[in-house]
Amino acid sequence: MAEVAAAAAAVAVARPLVFALNGARVELPEVDPALTLLTFLRTKTVFRGTKRGCGEGGCGACVVFVSRYNNRIKKMEEMTVNSCLTLLCSLDGCAITTTEGLGNQQLGHHAIHKRMSGFHASQCGFCTPGMTMALYGALRNSISKSCENSQEDGSKLQLSAAEAERAIAGNLCRCTGYRPLLDTCKSFSDEVDIDDLGLREFYEENGLPPYDPTRDPIFPQFLIEEYEARESLERENGGVSASPDNGATLNGADRKYETSTVQPRFRFADSESAKDREKVWIDPEGLLDVFEAMKTYQGTAEVKLVVGNTAAGYYKDIRPNVYIDVSKVDELVKLCEKADGIEVGASVTISNFIGFLENLENLKLEGSTNGGIDVANSSTDGTSVPHVLAAHLKKIASNHVRNWGSVGGNLMMARLYNFESDVATILLGVDAHVKIVSLGSEGNIVTETVRLEDFLGKGALENGKLLQSIWIPIDKQPSKDSQVLFKTFRAAPRPLGFALAFVNAAFFARVSENKSGVVTLEEVRLALGAFGTEHAIRARRVEKHLNGKPLTWDVIFEAIRLLKTDVVPKSGTSKAEYRVSVAGSFLFQFLSPLLEKDSDHVSEFNGLLSSGKQRITMTDEYYPVGQPTVKIASDLQASGEAVYVDDIPSPENCLHAAFVYSEKALAKVKNVDVQEALETPGTVAYISAADIPPKGKNIGLKMAISEARLFATDLVECIGHFMGVMVADSYDHAKEAAGKVKVEYDLKSVGPPILSAKDAMEQNSMFPVHFAVAGETKPIGDIAEGFAEGELKLEDVQVSTESQKHFYMETQTTLAIPDEDNCMVVYSSTQTPDNVQRSIAVALGIPYHNVRVITRRVGGGFGGKVFRSSAIAVACALAAYKLRRPVRTSLDRNTDMCVIGGRSPSTSTFSVAFTKEGRITALKAQVLIEAGYEPDFSVFLPGDFTHALKKYNYGALELDFRICKTNTVPKTAMRGPGQVQGSFLAESIIEHVAARLKLDPEIIRERNFHDISSLSKYYGAGAAGSSESYTLPSIWARLKASMNWVDREREVQQFNEKSTWMKRGLAMIPIIYCNMAGSKSAMVSIFADGSIVLETPGVEIGQGLHTKVRQAAAFALSKLFSKGRGVDISRIRIVQMDSISMANSGITSNSTTSEGCCAAVQAACEILVERLTPTFQMLQAGAPDSEVKWDTLISKAMFMTDMKVHHKYTPKQSFYLNYGAAASEVEINLLTGETQILATDLVFDCGKSLNPAVDIGQIEGAFVQGIGFFMTEGVEIDKDGRESADGTWTYKIPTVDTINKRFHVELFNSPALQERVLSSKASGEAPFLLAGSVYCAIRKAVISARKDRKNWVADSKLADQDSVPDDFRLNPPASMTRIKELCGLDNVELYVASMAASNQNIKLDAQSNSV
């Protein structure tokens, strides 16, 4: 590498990197080849709207729009890309548009920005810029297609509703539940009537902000002119190029740029002392240049051929020195149709390949076939091979990744790293070949054609060889005697892709049928992959078995059996049995329609992703409170102008911190060696417990009730236990240095780690239940008497819940700035600035008032930033304090998920007594709660757990809680902490009682509802309130009537009787949620111009707190005026939370902070109104015929009235109850375990809503987050104590294709509640529990499936019917794998065997009759 650098030292200066950013020209003479577009945007420009959510291409927060001019075809190419994966060097000549480039507050927002706001589609707002650009990409793509098809001027928008929805299929949102985002997308489609969309608030006369495509950013002409000028100059100079610096003149006639495309265009080293780490970027123009570059560098450096760099999202530890850009090499980007097939260049993007295949389908190159596709496990007949390939390719990754990632790159990942590639499998299914090229001894290109199957199994290509193209044979003249049958399949957590498959397949055969109806298969090709194999394989034994044989049920049965000998997952593969079973299901789906032509199999995932209605009752009693006002700053969130902590520009000399944490679950620390780490370029210091000031303490969290350590010293107690931070000039350097810290552990002297509640019980490793909640868990009634009263009993039934990650879109983030006089200013993404202030002060040994914590907004919290954010802030503050320089951090997603504990897992063992009618008389349960190595919030969970469990009247109740100390990362508060687990246990009890009695669970639920007497007994008279306020029975009745429960239940039963492989379930559950209201303060100031500023201790985390508080202030300040003449809400501003001005602020949590802040602001405003009243009366008396105006009132009162009020509100009743009910209908696929949520109807009582739009958003968002808990978000721990969930690849939150397809929400019109703040109740947490209706519906569908399985067992005689018990346990999450297991991993074999037996019986009967 050094010799190469020296040899190139005298080469002329390279042409700079030139591109456009939001229309402005950017020229960079030096670029780090490893620099991503996202890092450049966020560190080198003013455009911070593009967010870093994962760094893996898995969340969409970083999406931008890229345009480039293809001079060969004189055409513009436009696409969305993940900027976190896109290398800046690859964008030469491109135009990049971020959300700021579409519009802003000063010049006017884009229609997307306005509609995102008006449809209430932004809550925390962190994902909104990415959503905006994803939708913008879809609009531009639609316009481009319209222009191509009609030759119009490019202003015509032809976007289908389905295309609009799928625009954001590659983006994640943790707040909204997606429905309002999808409505925003669909609002741009002419297929959709705006009246069919959801709740919205617009000020335009026609109802929607108009979209004018002609006003969209255009591709800068200077880029085209510079490209053409450079080409022209190259021709004139015989290949010597120059670069113009604008559209008119060249960059100086004397300045020549190097022309060798083999010499590095860019060189970069982190420092003069790091020349051995030098990175180079090479821009070859042709294949020969690529070979020369490879020859030059291979063997001396880590070389990477780059197209889209999308592999970096998965293989993050691969850090090449040499980047060779092959994205523009002509020989590698060919995409052409030939006489007998298709040639696809290795550098062709997946999206371009899809478009090419779709064009082939339109031209019907293949003619009439009888193919089909089952991508998400459903079949569509009558499609061609190109169409099938294209449809499957659309399920790979996300549209943003497909736009930039290449076909060849995907295959190389499969070859080099055993990547679970869909591309490899489906191409193997069409018998694809690959072309390998190398440079011959005489400088000629040597070509080698290899079967794809052989290519995949050979590891790295030999030096000097590369993949040029893929050949796909297409039969354009099918036989008259046979038809082509080609289908592809994949089983994955997300139907539309955006997730790796558990198993994928591509099956091909020529099918013929004689006059007797006998079907025969020839040329059978069965490709399968991703099942735990090193690469996709052909099932040769099965192919041989099927070829040429008349197809019968016996033949299919044997084929499925044989498949198990071909599909053998390697040792250690997760869900191995499931993968093998689903592979058999795919084969069954391929073959069985040939014998069951009129039979149902599985329904396809199609149609719109989501629709819904919102029913609200508005009142102007407290106007503007109660109005669906648009959330404050939602348009700024969409346009990227809203500032989050990591968006704050770095102060001068700012450093970055990355955590060093334990890689062992339990060990003594013998030594920490940081010498090599400190030699990493840019590294400044290692900060540990040894650096805590003499008066400080090793404290990461200091609360009035508990405290927690910051750094481990001699003992680490979990993987992720903080040991220190590396501080460097960038986060990447700090992270690299942290990875080089060498820790010597002693494992022998501490024994094995405790990794489960069971282990903790065996070793008596416990924390005590906190005294503050001990009273909430006391027994109710006489338990012995209750069990004696029960006629039936279930004993020692065990159910459990797993942890759940917060997955807030904005990771833990802090900026700490040393200030004068031993002070510290800290910007923290936290729900508790108060805790952060206190913890930093104690850690540094300084007074509280020396620490100022500022939080303007938080990009999602859900409880994860209540306690755990403090340690992040303390570590940065400690580093800043010691180094006297600003220090910041924004954790990468993997680190965040490793070190921040999620929801506490629970294991409950219960015994229950009940009558034959289903009335429960006694319940006794032991509940184990896993806390991790520190108690955190887990010691408080028993109280919350009990509150939710008590939603039913159990008669006598006795609970025993154990808080288990384990060697796992401390679990913490998460949306509905404890109450989620308690509600699940309550429904599990109901389900088990119903199963024992063979009654519908809804009947058991109704028979155990509280009356007001038992409600008061269970919750206390104060929380229960009056009989009028107990609205649950009315809500239940309302829901049953509005959703047509009886008819829907009958329809589900009829469907299940007819359908073999799809089963539906319909379930309905109630909730009682106990809220705890706390004291809150407020400061209200009126300025001389009549504008108003509010300060509250509440943090805006997306829950609409600021919006509700502003509405409350407008109501209270307008009491002197007639309706509609008071203070306009636009005059009111609410400022960021500041721990100095709002001291002792408490916690933003429990969903009650909004109402508490509203009450405090209302009271403060009423004091101001009282002060203003004399002046108002004076003005009114002086002009009795005219109305006093607000501005006049303030101008007169200003010099005689104190215009600032601070007030503290304390609720009279701390606890109160929320009520709600939801019914969900699901459809499960017995072949794969996949679930679709067909519909949810929900009725919720939040009193008189402070803002119906905000509350609807909270309800929908909480419910969808609950879907994740109950369906997809499992967290497993391996034997070493490492969690499986560490990023977007391994942890799957709900996406647009996994939410309810129809979601109706009604805010129950409850009576006025004088004891509540403006008659309102909280809405943010309780609806999470209602997602349990989805879980219960899945149980019902599984019950139906198991009934059929029992019949198949009897018919096939392969097993005993007792092997299918009526009772079963399904612990959440009800994942595809668990559902499939309960429906039967062998259900296909049983069914086929029963069909074979049935046919045999028919033959025997026929023979008997003939005799």
From TrEMBL:
Extract the GO molecular function terms from the UniProt entry: 2 iron, 2 sulfur cluster binding; FAD binding; iron ion binding; oxidoreductase activity
Residue ranges occupied by any 2Fe-2S ferredoxin-type domain in the UniProt entry: 15-102
Q: Which residues form the FAD-binding PCMH-type domain?
A: 274-477
**Keyword set for this entry?**
2Fe-2S, FAD, Flavoprotein, Iron, Iron-sulfur, Metal-binding, Molybdenum, NAD, Oxidoreductase
**Is NAD found in the keyword set?**
yes
Residues binding FAD are 406-410, 422, 467, 490
Q: Does the keyword Mitochondrion apply?
A: no
Instruction: Please tell me where [2Fe-2S] cluster 2 binds in this chain.
Output: 124, 127, 173, 175
Matching SUPFAM superfamilies, A to Z?
A: 2Fe-2S ferredoxin-like (SSF54292), CO dehydrogenase flavoprotein C-terminal domain-like (SSF55447), CO dehydrogenase ISP C-domain like (SSF47741), CO dehydrogenase molybdoprotein N-domain-like (SSF54665), FAD-binding/transporter-associated domain-like (SSF56176), Molybdenum cofactor-binding domain (SSF56003)
Required co-factors:
[2Fe-2S] cluster; Mo-molybdopterin; FAD
Into which family does the record put it? Belongs to the xanthine dehydrogenase family.
Please report the name of this protein according to its UniProt entry. Uncharacterized protein
Task: Record the organism.
Answer: Ceratodon purpureus
